[in-house]
Write a structure and sequence with these properties.
Layout lengths: L14 H4 L8 E7 L4 E6 L6 E5 L3 E2 L4 E3 L7 H4 L6 H18 L6 H7 L1 E5 L3 H17 L5 H6 L1 E5 L11 H13 L3 E3 L2 E7 L2 E6 L5 E6 L2 E4 L3 E3 L1 H10 L3 H8 L17 E2 L1
Parallel strand pairs: 4-14, 6-7, 6-12, 7-8
Antiparallel strand pairs: 1-2, 2-3, 5-13, 9-10, 10-11
Helix pairs in contact: 3-4, 8-9
């Protein structure tokens, strides 16, 4: 789960076991030659080693990466919820913060910072995660750190005027009410401008915008995704209309059969 309450071995299976008929190569595609129906792959295990593969049909499903929107400090000081290693880091940080907060020489202000857990992004991923985070702290950790859990703060920052902006207003209101009933502090119209070690600088949208400082012991960034560098390179190599599609939405342009527009039918997005 998002806070690591389910062990990795319970949800991950080797592709060699799950699909023994497939040939698996651990590497990263770094070149596509559509007219030749060939790709080049760089090894993930040996430096400076690459391979070339011919194909009949190519299915491109590389996914996305976290979008930091060019905000300083996001990559250095935030956790993400994209990979299994991200979840491990999040759970380790939560438990470590509670242990640090329990030390006798921890000052009250430092204890409060350690026990402040911030999620940036009010979309589906951010809302789902902060709900699980709140449940984990209040249900799982309350028996271990009963006094500290009472001091813990869970904060959701969203730049928009509502959470779950892609959904209808009734669902937005219900989700907002549900989070606040669990004790989650939802701060709307709050745009992050910089992230430093232990604090976030944000601007509150108003008639007279002012910068505010939000301390944190853990910050999870769930504010959006961007195309992988490989997707951008692929779009640049393919040319229009694929480049404009990637720049605007982070997605390659496909037709109704999921084929990349303007290319041979053997290349599927």
């Amino acid at each position: 789960t998002a806070v690591g309450t389910v062990e990795q071995r319970s949800i991950v299976e080797s592709i060699r076991v799950s699909n023994p008929t497939a040939t698996y190569i651990e590497g990263e595609m770094d070149g596509l030659f559509a007219q030749e129906k060939r790709i080049t792959v760089r090894s993930k295990l040996r430096a400076n080693e690459s391979f070339s593969f011919a194909y009949d049909y190519l299915i491109y499903a590389a996914g996305s990466v976290v979008n930091d929107f060019g905000i300083q400090g996001v990559t250095e000081h935030c956790c993400f919820i994209k990979e299994i290693e991200d979840v491990r880091r999040i759970k380790h940080t939560i438990l470590e913060n509670f242990e640090k907060a329990s030390l006798p020489r921890t000052t009250p202000s430092e204890r409060q910072r350690l026990l402040t857990f911030v999620v940036v992004g009010g979309g589906p991923s951010g809302v789902e995660f902060i709900g699980e985070l709140s449940d984990f702290i209040n249900d799982e950790l309350s028996g271990i750190y009963p006094q500290l859990v009472q001091q813990a703060e869970v904060v959701l920052l969203n730049s928009g005027a509502s959470i779950l902006g892609a959904f209808d207003e009734a669902l937005q209101s219900r989700a907002l009410e549900s989070l606040r009933s669990r004790g989650v502090q939802v701060r709307l119209n709050s745009r992050v401008t910089e992230v430093r070690s232990g604090s976030i600088t944000l601007t509150k949208k108003s008639e007279s915008p002012q910068q505010q400082l939000q301390p944190f012991g853990l910050c999870v960034w769930a504010a959006g995704t961007a195309p992988r560098p490989l997707t951008r390179r692929l779009a640049d190599a393919l040319g229009e209309p694929h480049v404009s599609s990637v720049k605007k939405s982070g997605r390659l342009a496909v037709d109704r059969w999921l084929r990349l527009q303007g290319l041979p039918t053997e290349l599927v997005g």
